Amino acid sequence: MDKFSYEENGYNRSEVNQFVSDVIKQTEGIVKKYRSQKEEIKLLKEQLEQYKTMEETLKKSIINAEKTGDNIKLLAREEANSIIKDAKNNASRIVNDSLLKASKIEQEADTLERNMKIFKRKLKIIVEQQMAVVEEIETLDLKEN
After folding, report:
1. How far is it, in rounded angstroms, from Cα 64 to Cα 58?
2. What gap in Å lies between CA 109 and CA 101, rounded to an integer?
3. What residue ranges do the domains of the chain occupy?
4. What is the DSSP letter of 120?
5. Averaged in consecutive runs of 10 residues, what is the pLDDT profile of the chain (145 residues)?
6. Closest by CA position to 40, among listed 28, 48, 51
7. Predicted local distance difference test score (pLDDT) of residue 145
């Protein structure tokens, strides 16, 4: 604290006035600083609220993205299982069709083989009959001469 010099009716008026003026300036500076800090605190609180809102929005977005990702994975698995099931069914159908065709071809081959044997026997009989006719002709030609 400043010490004031004494004058005739008390302290030196100009020193006191100067002191009061300095105190007023300091007080005004403190009040101004207080108001400025109060305004800054208000702005910071508003920003904090905005950041909290953004954080909540981001959390919700992340949760929704995770749910969407899980749904996509589930749908992909279901589609993959469906494709595999269809492929297995198609493979079974193709194998069954092939087995039926192979069986049919085998039956046709057996039928052809039997027909060939029958044809050979009949041809053999015809050739033998023709040979008998040829021998008979030779015998007839010899007896007539």
Report:
1. 10
2. 12
3. 6-144
4. H
5. 69 84 93 95 96 97 97 97 95 94 95 95 94 81 61
6. 48
7. 56
Instruction: Return the structure tokens found at 123.
Output: 């041809």
Tracing tokens 């994975």 back to the chain, one arrives at: 73
Q: Is 11 helix (H, G, I), strand (E, B) or coil?
A: strand
What's the confidence (pLDDT) of residue 40? 95
DSSP secondary structure code for residue 9 in this structure: T
Q: Which amino acid is at 12?
A: N
The alpha carbon dihedral of 41, 46, 47, 48 has a sign of positive
pTM exceeds 0.70: no
Sign of CA dihedral 77, 80, 86, 87: negative
Could you give the 3-state DSSP secondary structure of residue 6? strand
DSSP H or E run through 7:
strand 6-7
In this prediction, residue 1 carries a pLDDT of 54
